[in-house]
Q: What sequence folds into this?
C-alpha cells in the first residue's frame, strides 16, 4: 500500500461530536430557556403564575412627612403642609395582593398605601390624593403702599375775582299746534295748452299771456290778428306740431311776441309738416336755449318783420325759407350763425331785401351760413339786395353737391371776410369752366379787416372772397376802382383781395346802385 492510498476511518472517530456543534447546541438551549422564562414572568399574567412573597422583601424606606420637608421658597404656604406621611409598603406577613390590588386601591378601601410593585425593579407609582380631603388656602392679597398726602400750597396770595358774564334770561317757548285740517294739495298744471281746430286771437283779447307751453296740434290753425301782443313767461315755448301759425300784422299795428319779465322766454318751434307765416311781426326777448326760432322739414315765410334783442338764432333744417324785407339784428348768440339753414336734400332758400348784422357772434362764426349736404340733389338759392354785415365771413356757403341760382346786389361788409364757398368734395366741369351754376354779380364786397401781412396792412386790404372750387365772380365791386388785390394777376389792385380760384375780371369800378348801403 502506498502513501497515496486513503486510510480507513476508525469506527470510534465517526461517533465523536465536535466542539463547534456543542457550542451551537448550548446556545440554542439557552435561547429556549430564556424564551420560556419570558413567558413565565411577563407582567399581566394570571395571579397563579405570579411569584408569591415567600421570601423577605426589603421594605421601602418610610416617606418623610411633608411637615418636616423644607418649605418652598415662595411667599405663599403650600397647601400640602397638613398631609399625612407617606405609608409604608406591605409587610412580609401580609397576604399576597390580588390583581385589583396591583392596579390600584380597592373600591371599598380607604387606605392610601401603595400597591405592591409589579415585577422586580418596578418603581412605585405616585400617591393619589383626594381633592375633597384637601382645603386650599386662598392667597393673601398684596398690600399696596399708601398714597402720598399732598402738601398744602405755600402761596398765600388771594386770586383776583373774575368778571361774571351775565347769562341771557330764558325766553318763552312757543309750542306749535298742528292744524287739524291738512293743507290742500295743489294740482300741477298741465305741461302745455293744446289748440285744436281753427283758433283766432283778436286785438280785443290782447295782451295774451302764456304761462306754459302752447301746442298747435296737427291740422290745427292759430290766426293772430294785427295789434295782438303775445306775452310769454320765462322758458315758455310755442310748438307748431304739424299745424299752422299765421301772425298777420300791419305796419302800424304789428303782432308782438315778447316776454313778461326781463328773463327770456324760450322760442317758436316747428315740427315736421308745419307752416309758419309772419308779416309785420316783432320777436323780442326770446331764445333762452340758443334758438329763438327753429323749424324742421317745414315751411317758413317771413315778411317785413324784426328779430331784435334775442338770445338765440333762427335755425332751419330741411325747411323751405322765404325771408324778405326783414331785420335780424342786435341779438346775443352763444353759438352758431344768426341765420343757420341746413339741408340734407334739395330745397330752396330765398333771401331778398333783408338786413342781417350787428349780432354778437362767437369769433370766427359767419353771420349767415347755408349748408347743402346732399351730393345728388340741387339747392336753389335766390339772395338779392341783402345787407350782410359782420361775421367771419359775412356769408358762407358750404356744399357737397350742386348749387344754382343768383347772388346779386348784396352788400357784404365788415369784420374779417366777405364771402366764402366751402366744399368737402372735389367739383369739376368740362373745358375748365366753373362747376357751380351761380350768378354772383353786382355785389358790394368791401371794408374788411386786413390780416397781419405787411402789404395788406399798408393798403388796408381785407379778404373779400375765398373759394375751394373755381367760381365766377365777375362784375362785382371790391372797394376800389383798381379792382381786387391779387399778388400774381393784379398786384396793383387796392380792393379787397380774392382767392386763387376766383375769376374776378372784369370788375366794377363803382359801387352798384342796387346794393343796400
A:
Amino acid at each position: 500500500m502506498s502513501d497515496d492510498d486513503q486510510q480507513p476511518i476508525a469506527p470510534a472517530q465517526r461517533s465523536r461530536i465536535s466542539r463547534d456543534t456543542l457550542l451551537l447546541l448550548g446556545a440554542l438551549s439557552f435561547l429556549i430557556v430564556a424564551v420560556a422564562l419570558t413567558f413565565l414572568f411577563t407582567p399581566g399574567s394570571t395571579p397563579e403564575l405570579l411569584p408569591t412573597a415567600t421570601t423577605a422583601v426589603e421594605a421601602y424606606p418610610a416617606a418623610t412627612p411633608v411637615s418636616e420637608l423644607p418649605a418652598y421658597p415662595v411667599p405663599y404656604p403650600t397647601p400640602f403642609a397638613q398631609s399625612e406621611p407617606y405609608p409604608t409598603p406591605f409587610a412580609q406577613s401580609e397576604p399576597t395582593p390580588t390583581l385589583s390590588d396591583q392596579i390600584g386601591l380597592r373600591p371599598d378601601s380607604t387606605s392610601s398605601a401603595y400597591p405592591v410593585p409589579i415585577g422586580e425593579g418596578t418603581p412605585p407609582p405616585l400617591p393619589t390624593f383626594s381633592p375633597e380631603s384637601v382645603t386650599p388656602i386662598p392667597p393673601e392679597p398684596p398690600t399696596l403702599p399708601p398714597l402720598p398726602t399732598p402738601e398744602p400750597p405755600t402761596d398765600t396770595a388771594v386770586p383776583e375775582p373774575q368778571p361774571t358774564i351775565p347769562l341771557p334770561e330764558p325766553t318763552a317757548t312757543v309750542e306749535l299746534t298742528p292744524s287739524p285740517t291738512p293743507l290742500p294739495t295743489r294740482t300741477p298744471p298741465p305741461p302745455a295748452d293744446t289748440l285744436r281746430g281753427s283758433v283766432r286771437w283778436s286785438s280785443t283779447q290782447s295782451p295774451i299771456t302764456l304761462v306754459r307751453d302752447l301746442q298747435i296740434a296737427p291740422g290745427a290753425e292759430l290766426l293772430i290778428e294785427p295789434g295782438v301782443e303775445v306775452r310769454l313767461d320765462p322758458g315758455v315755448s310755442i310748438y307748431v306740431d304739424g299745424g299752422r301759425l299765421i301772425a298777420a300784422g300791419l305796419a302800424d299795428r304789428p303782432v308782438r311776441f315778447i316776454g313778461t319779465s326781463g328773463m327770456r322766454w324760450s322760442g317758436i318751434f316747428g315740427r315736421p309738416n308745419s307752416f309758419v307765416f309772419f308779416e309785420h311781426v316783432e320777436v323780442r326777448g326770446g331764445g333762452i336755449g340758443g334758438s329763438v326760432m327753429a323749424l324742421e322739414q317745414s315751411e317758413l315765410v317771413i315778411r317785413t318783420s324784426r328779430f331784435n334783442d334775442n338770445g338765440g338764432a333762427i335755425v332751419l333744417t330741411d325747411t323751405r325759407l322765404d325771408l324778405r324785407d326783414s331785420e335780424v339784428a342786435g341779438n346775443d348768440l352763444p353759438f352758431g350763425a344768426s341765420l343757420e339753414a341746413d339741408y340734407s336734400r334739395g330745397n330752396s332758400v330765398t333771401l331778398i331785401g333783408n338786413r342781417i348784422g350787428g349780432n354778437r357772434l362767437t369769433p370766427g362764426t359767419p353771420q349767415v351760413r347755408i349748408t347743402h349736404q346732399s351730393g345728388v340733389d340741387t339747392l336753389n338759392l335766390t339772395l338779392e339786395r341783402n345787407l350782410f354785415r359782420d361775421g367771419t365771413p359775412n356769408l358762407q356757403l358750404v356744399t357737397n353737391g350742386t348749387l344754382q341760382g343768383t347772388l346779386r346786389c348784396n352788400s357784404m361788409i365788415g369784420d374779417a371776410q366777405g364771402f366764402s364757398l366751402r366744399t368737402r368734395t372735389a367739383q369739376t366741369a368740362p373745358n375748365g369752366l366753373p362747376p357751380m351754376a351761380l350768378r354772383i354779380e353786382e355785389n358790394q364786397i368791401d371794408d374788411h379787416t386786413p390780416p397781419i401781412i405787411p402789404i395788406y396792412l399798408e393798403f388796408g386790404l381785407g379778404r373779400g372772397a375765398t373759394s375751394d372750387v373755381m367760381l365766377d365772380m365777375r362784375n362785382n365791386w371790391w372797394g376800389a376802382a383798381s379792382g381786387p388785390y391779387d399778388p400774381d394777376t393784379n398786384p396793383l389792385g387796392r380792393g379787397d383781395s380774392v382767392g386763387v380760384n376766383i375769376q374776378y375780371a372784369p370788375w366794377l369800378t363803382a359801387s352798384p346802385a342796387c346794393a343796400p348801403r
